[in-house]
Amino acid sequence: MSEPKMTSIDHQNYENAELVEDYVTSNKLEPAEVMIFMKYRDEIVGRRVMDIGCGAGRVTSYLSRWAGHTVGVDFSSVMIEHCRRALPDIEFVCCNVRDLRSSYPARSVDVAVFTFNGIDTLSHEDRLTSFAGLHEVLAPNGLLIFSTHNRRYRLAREEPRLRFSRNPFTLLSLGLRYVRETLNHRARVPFQRETQEYALINDIAHEFRMVHYYIDRETQRRQLASVGFRLLEVYGEDGRVLEGDDDDSASGSLYYVARSV
Question: What pLDDT, on a 0 to 100 scale, did the predictor assign at position 8?
């Protein structure tokens, strides 16, 4: 069965100007990001760094303090316009990660960062195309740092549920949210899939308006290897390096560090 094309519907959500405010309020680095950036600091300082799916510039602004040159890339024109106003000293480009090879020369980037699970809004085919494009624009031994949803996360398939409050106004708000989430979830259930390699799951993001790609660690390693990356490390959301058969079911997202070979 062919994969349903949910990408265009998901991407429309990111052209909503109201969504920018949600991203502006989230301006801190995640624990795993802190650990990775500190460990690989020497490979970032003075280098050519690309922050893909930059959103409101949360990670871009941090990277620009170390990098020799930083460019923030996002397919959302609304996000890019915000970043250009808020961070005028940093270069921002409206570009889809699927088309990197047509926009940037080969070996023109030393470090590519793609956090906040941005890669998970793509279809399976576009995901592989994007990884191949990232490999091409990265310099030899360049770093790819990204996050993706964890298929083994124990709450990955949680459905909308009604929450309660003693405050009647809060209860009304929660009830209305539950109705929105339920309607959104019902509309997206047909797009969910479970395959041997990955799953497409309608999760809690943006009130169940999204269908995201979920993958486990070993499958992600093989996926990276197929386009020329060597996996170096995997981090849980708490910033802990995961080894071998370590239990990762508490992490909704995992952070990967890979090298271009």
Answer: 44
